[in-house]
Amino acid sequence: MNNEIKQILNQKLTLKEIYVTGDSNHIKIIAIGDIFKSINQVKRQQIIYAPLINMITEKKIHALSITTYTIKEWEKNNKNNLG
C-alpha cells in the first residue's frame, strides 16, 4: 500500500521527494517540495490529504502522520534524518 500512496501523491502533486512508511493502521508520510512555500502547516496537510481522501474514506488508511518540508527546509534541518 505504501507504494500505491507514493504513486498517487507523485501523480497529483509536484514533490521533489516523498517517503511513505508504516502499514494501514498507521502511515507516516514525509513530503518535500516547494509547493509548500509560504503555506501554513494545516494547509500543507490538506494538500497531502486531498489526493488520498478516497483511501481514507474507504478505510484503507486508518491513521496518517504527515510531515512536510520545502526543499530549503529539508536541506537545512532534515537531510540526514528520515526518522
Automatic annotation (TrEMBL):
Pfam families linked = BolA
Family statement: Belongs to the BolA/IbaG family.
Name of the protein: BolA family protein
Native organism: Buchnera aphidicola (Aphis aurantii)
Name the lineage.
Bacteria, Pseudomonadati, Pseudomonadota, Gammaproteobacteria, Enterobacterales
